[in-house]
Amino acid sequence: MIALMNGNNSLLTLQRISKIFSKGTVDQVIALDKIDLDVAAEDYITVIGSNGAGKTTLLNIIAGVFPPEDGEIILNGRNITKLCEYRCAEFVGRVYQDPHVGTAAKMTIEENMAMALLRGQPRGLRAASNKQRRELFRAALAPLGLGLENRLNTLVGTLSGGQRQALSLVMATLSNPAILLLDEHTATLDPRTAQIVLDLTDMIVKREKMTAIMVTHNMEMALRHGNRLIMMHKGRIVVDMNQEQRAGLTIHDLVVAFERASGEEFVDDSVLLRPGNVVGSSDL
Fold first, then answer.
1. For residues 284 and 161, what is the distance between their CA atoms, to the nearest angstrom?
2. Residue 103 carries which DSSP code?
3. Does residue 280 carry a pLDDT above 50?
């Protein structure tokens, strides 16, 4: 494996993490195979790999969706291995592939953002929103350039897919989580809208000095964004490159690196597609 170790400045550490689905049956799948990963503060990691490589499972483990079979997860010096998803939501922000998953259609933009602000905290009987919070919401939405700051009372269900995903991005970062997880969050958008959301992602991660892990199914995207690139295969990390190591690399170079590290031929053509090869129309 081409590896980059971050030493003692790790914000997030995964130690020997394994996850097996349908264990002990004929359908058994080893989704993660003794993963070791150190994530430094302000790392912006892109994760690439074919279907079944373990990319989304990696995010689910970090987010507490389900516990690993073995290993430990340390975040900011705290062992979060056995914490449930609700407890992890206090310090883990996430944007999903489907814009509809991260937002509530029958609630207003303001109500959605109020819920996001209180994520992982006791709700009590206090009001979910007030004048001071509205100003906070407007300030968070204004840099998107979509005019959503002037539509706080708009039902989220009336927004386009791109607008909802941009809103999801703001909601996921509103409470200043320790780490932001992006699960192919532009995969369902058309190329133009996807690029806008990616640019917004880069802007927010840089502005807020966030630590982020972005799963993508596109090699070109993985090369253009973030400061570190990881390739996964059959539940293992087979390539791990920092900014200097990946500078100037082409998609062909990545394929060669993968094949050398894994000992197998790269056969997933969908990962090689450029974003512009996807047919669609703008929905922002």
1. 7
2. S
3. no
